[in-house]
Amino acid sequence: MTTSTPYNKSEPKKQQVARMFDSIAPKYDFLNHLLSANIDKLWRSKCIRILKPLQPKTILDVATGTGDFAIAALKLNPNKVIGIDISENMLEHGRVKLKKKNYDDKIELLSGDSEQLAFDSNKFDAVTVGFGVRNFENLELGLKEMLRVLKPDGKAVILEFSKPSTFPIKQLYSFYFKNILPTIGKMVSKDNAAYTYLPDSVQNFPQGNEFLDIMKNLGYKKVNAQTLTFGIASIYTGIK
Asked: Which residues, in sequence order, are CB contacts of 145 under 8 Å at separation 6+?
């Protein structure tokens, strides 16, 4: 598996990713919804519906960014949602957003490393990740940590970009991802690398059965994948 990095190859990926998100944090929410035409909100809602039968009371959102997935999880009426991220700037923007919406009593955003989760084992009913596992420096270690902190029968729900395979969606998607998205992202965020890294990281990331095999090998049970919007994104689920 080829590793994609935002900046200098000699610097650890984790540090590069933190620096990248610190850089684009002020414009992240705006760009996220603009570049996805708000369809990312529908994808998160689908993930939340998958968790509804479980009725999770404690939820961990890994690579939470500004907390969009954590906010969506409030529809499940949990007692507590904790979001972690390695970018302090993203978390700060998220905390401002939570305060404006009066959600800061239900959601706590903490600085944290997905590969070294600072929580006891068997703590959470559910763990979610939205567009974050591509950014793990060590994918297996991050997924293993998520499994560790899940309670027995707890569920992981992972939303991630994938690559469409059917004509003409594949060609249109490729053109948009490689040309339009980086150009708009660069103009708005002022970061030359961030939105070039995104399509590169999607291209090099395992998807479908390859990703499910990784989950199974780490100990996840009842793993499943479903594609969204012509294969532009996928939802991966697994149970402890």
From this structure: 114, 115, 116, 117
Distance CA 107, CA 79 (A): 9
Other CB atoms within a 10 A radius of the CB of residue 80 amount to 13
pLDDT band at 1 (very low <50, low <70, confident <90, very high): low
Q: Quick check: is 4 in a domain?
A: no
Q: Is the pLDDT of residue 2 over 70?
A: no
Q: Do residues 80 and 59 make contact, with C-beta atoms less than 8 angstroms apart?
A: yes
Q: Please report whether residue 220 resides in a domain.
A: yes
| 100 burial via Cβ count (<10 Å: 0-12, 13-18, 19+) | exposed
Side by side, which strands form the sheet with 221-228? 107-111, 80-85, 58-62, 124-130, 150-161, 233-239, 221-228
Domain of residue 106, residue span:
13-239
* Residue 8 domain-assigned (yes or no): no
The CATH number linked to 141 is 3.40.50.150
* Total of domains in the chain: 1
Full-prediction pTM beyond 0.85?
yes
Cα end-to-end span (Å), the chain? 25
pLDDT in tens, 91-106: 999 999 999 999 999 9
190 occurs within a structural domain: yes
